[in-house]
Amino acid sequence: MSASNLFMKPGFVRAPLQNGVGRYVCQLQRVVLKFCKTHGASRGLRDFIEQDLVEFAKGNPGVVVYLKPRRHRGPVVVAEYLNGERIWMNMHNKTHSEITKWIETLRTQQGDVSATRLRKYQYTAYPSIQGPWSPFTFREPELNTAELPDVKFGENNRLPTSATEQLRLLFERQRLGDGQEKTAE
């Protein structure tokens, strides 16, 4: 472990790890846009509110957007996530396009996990270079071009006979063999 982790807060990942496997759940829960109606530093945020806020709200129905006008204060965007994290960003003198990019970044991330030292029970200094295992790791490459359903790739054809099945077949052959000898006598 490196010494850079000493000053990070320890914690666990509280967001769903396989988000997007069954369906995608946007981790951004709430966005609060704090701005001044007259202050010059809030110009970019006011432009974003006038031009893009309605489209952002229509495109992300699961995200609640609050507008909080404040007198003589700098513009701020506060993002709250499902895992309880809050990210506070100062938007002082940012342009409309920069604010659009930052809000899109806040929408697509899952919270401030990068500043957390992840605690886990397993640790290795040499992770696998092969990548994670998946159910398709050891599949035959012929399946990629085959027209399914195919008799060649049936379940019984691919699996070898188990030891239990071999013993059962051996027992059946012996029983039938003993039955034929008794009937011949």
TrEMBL record:
One of its GO biological process terms is:
mitochondrial translation
Cell location: Mitochondrion
User: InterPro entries in the record, alphabetically?
Assistant: Ribosomal_mL43, Ribosomal_mL43/mS25/NADH_DH, Thioredoxin-like_sf
The record's principal subcellular location, in a coarse class, is mitochondrion
Report domain Ribosomal protein/NADH dehydrogenase positions. Answer: 37-110
Sorted keywords for this record are: Mitochondrion, Ribonucleoprotein, Ribosomal protein
Q: Which GO terms describe its molecular function?
A: structural constituent of ribosome
Q: Which GO terms describe its cellular component?
A: mitochondrial large ribosomal subunit
A Pfam family in this protein? L51_S25_CI-B8
Q: Which family does it belong to?
A: Belongs to the mitochondrion-specific ribosomal protein mL43 family.
List the protein's name.
Large ribosomal subunit protein mL43
The record lists the organism as Operophtera brumata (Winter moth)
